[in-house]
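Input (structure):
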């Protein structure tokens, strides 16, 4: 089953680990412990528990060298996981409505000209895709 179709619930803590590994992989348990202590304040035991659970869940691959040092990596592709998580959020919070989400996210915020241009470009591409699909 492909990653895009697999149903995996990723917690906020697991997301922190994935970000560390997407930025630099593979990493040893020690490297991840140090990185997560600095970024989110986790203790060594918390990090090791999350790494074990993520490995059991199939989110991480763990290799143990002859020296007993464990190295972690993920085969999950960041863009695919981000898209799936965004779609899940959109469905859960906004009933799948992109316009409702954009309205809520921009309410009371001052958008820069660059942000407005980017939104127009997204809408233009969506319009083109709709025309091609019809």
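Output (sequence):
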């Amino acid at each position: 089953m492909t990653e895009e179709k697999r149903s995996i619930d990723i917690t906020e803590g697991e997301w922190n680990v994935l970000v560390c590994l997407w930025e630099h992989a593979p990493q040893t348990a020690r490297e991840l412990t140090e990185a997560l202590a600095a970024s989110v304040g986790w203790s060594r035991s918390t990090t090791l528990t999350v790494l074990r659970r993520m490995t059991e869940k199939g989110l991480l691959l763990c290799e143990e060298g002859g020296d007993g040092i464990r190295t972690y990596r993920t085969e999950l592709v960041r863009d695919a996981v981000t898209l799936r998580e965004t779609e899940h959020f959109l469905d859960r919070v906004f009933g799948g409505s992109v316009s409702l989400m954009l309205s809520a996210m921009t309410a009371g915020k001052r958008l820069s000209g660059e942000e407005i241009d980017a939104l127009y470009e997204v809408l233009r591409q969506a319009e083109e895709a709709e025309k091609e699909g019809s």
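Notes: The chain has two domains: 12-73, 78-133. The domain at 12-73 is CATH 1.10.10.10 (Arc Repressor Mutant, subunit A).
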